[in-house]
Amino acid sequence: MATNSIPLAYQGNTSAASPDWLNKGDNAWQMISATLVGLQSVPGLVILYGSIVKKKWAVNSAFMALYAFAAVIICWVTWAYNMSFGDKLLPFWGKAGPALGQRFLIAQAKLPASTHHFSNGTVETQMITPFYPMATMVWFQCAFAAITLILLAGSLLGRMNIKAWMMFVPLWLTFSYTVGAFSLWGGGFLFHWGVIDYSGGYVIHLSSGIAGFVAAYWVGPRLPADRERFPPNNVLLMLAGAGLLWMGWAGFNGGDPYSANIDSSMAVLNTNICAATSLLVWTWLDVIFFDKPSVIGAVQGMITGLVCITPGAGLVQGWAAIVMGILSGSVPWFTMMVVHKRWSLLQKVDDTLGVFHTHAVAGFLGGILTGLFAEPELCALFLPVTNSRGGIYGGSGGSQLLKQIVGGLFIIGWNIVSTSIICVAIKVVIPLRMSDEQLKIGDDAVHGEEAYALWGDGEVYDSTKHGMVHEFSDEKIHRRASGATQVV
Predict the structure, then answer these.
(1) What's the whole-number mean pLDDT along residues 131-144?
(2) Is this prediction's pTM over 0.85?
(3) Hey, how many other C-beta atoms are within 10 angstroms of the C-beta on 112?
């Protein structure tokens, strides 16, 4: 077949559709990774949130995740991508601008502020220019931004005004997420200083954990009845959502070298090693101290392992991933089960799913441990700062540990301030918390929809609606219908 009769898209390295700089393997892996990260959110966290909460909040919790995913996509391509990965405006922020034009999206991907220089001004590491188009980079990073907002939502389930959440998502993305992303990934001051955040231990998990805790403070708590008893409405579906989260992490950490290379393989393997170790440690701690293995606890242990390995996934050896898993299964368990019950501040703030422990504590822990265990040869495969290494490898390792602590403190401080300002500003316009009447009823009051066609939790009894005979007293009906798990 003559060359000129082949469609442009299939003329390898001979046409504008397949230019010389395009590596089809890298492009395919990056698009797959972006899809895996997207699946963590939709349907992964949509299912997990809708299942892990009380029945009357299943629809609202799932919808908060779904809405955030859609809203972030539009904000991302309209202005937020370039604030995170475009030209530098400030040492911690990029210039806002759309990522929608054809010429921009089909050009080779690049992070213009990422050229790294020695102190004398000479180039140490060239600008990051992956071998695929900007469209791939924009979508990959969009999936990361979206899941950050959804993780944050875990602290606010069961009481935040959905209209306030609709305002919160674009504001927090703009004034918090983009700052962390540019500072650590896009060429900001922490990136050039050499703080290591391989795949979002700080940008995503530490920021969502701290921001979720702060937002939970401003929104206020759930009803006392909900705080005292908040059983999952479907444990099996919760496990299905958790499974999507775990398997999707292959794209989360495996895609961050921006290439299908040996570093991405190390990252995927280490991710699974750490997650499995952490799950087992958390489960055994539950058995030792509470005599029963908790399924919810196992999911929390899985998540803390995934979070902890994220800042160093492709930079540590397998044995270090096991050590990180042991610590990620025990330290957040201790802060959640022991410290939380003894610290009045933690008890005062109603963090619905304990995102502070599973993401903020585990993320900061992972960043610090990366500063200890980052292996020099693996660092050389990935990092722009030459001769980077963890503390146990001597040399500049001690300063790396200090950098990791300072980088984490910046993310914590920025999120406390920015999230507080955003919540106070929204509160001027609309209540952050639902009314007590809505909180008593739940989904039916907020959305006019219910997760299951069953009467009970949070619903006002109507004999005609629920089809129960009139000769039974309301007291008997309520007693018989309350708590599906109690009626066998």
Answers:
(1) 97
(2) yes
(3) 17
